[in-house]
Amino acid sequence: MSHTVITTTTTTTRTSGDSVLNMGYTRTIPGMLKMGQMVALLVAFLCVHCARGWPSWAAFQYFEVVVLWFLIALTIFFLMHLFRLQGKMPCINWPLTEFFHYSVGTVLIFIASIVAAAKTAGVSALVAGSVFGFIATFLMAVSLWTSYSVTCGSHQTGG
């Protein structure tokens, strides 16, 4: 009598695309730009917040509010990409939402940085805060440009 034995081996492997955390995003240009913006905005906020003797209370309060608001919004966008949450909310046009965020953020942070630079009165922490505000403005303008090319890039027409 002969017996036939069949063994089945099942292996499961997870590719990097299946994981919950998308660490590859941190190595992309948009991911690095977002991290740079978050660092610049955080440093700008901390410089102004920890400074003693604001020469213009209203100007630096405006600077703090604008910088903190866009830091929070940017952190949310970064976490959305990091945890791949855009796919779970398909009703929102994410490239257009980020384009709008960068458009408004670039303008408002630029205005806040100009106002802060004009009102520093030589306080070094306030000067540093406004400089980091300008750095964040530049990084947001670069992100605006790259998100524009994704959102509104050239479309080929048949001909």
From TrEMBL:
Protein name as annotated: CKLF-like MARVEL transmembrane domain containing 7
MARVEL domain sequence ranges: 25-152
Membrane topology: Multi-pass membrane protein
The UniProt record lists the keyword Magnesium: no
Main location: membrane
Keywords: Membrane, Transmembrane, Transmembrane helix
InterPro entries, sorted: Marvel, MARVEL-CKLF_proteins
A cellular component term, taken from the record's GO annotations: membrane
A Pfam entry, by short name: MARVEL
PROSITE patterns reported in the protein's UniProt record: MARVEL
Transmembrane annotation, as ranges: 35-54, 60-79, 99-118, 124-145
Recorded superkingdom: Eukaryota
Compartment(s) of residence: Membrane
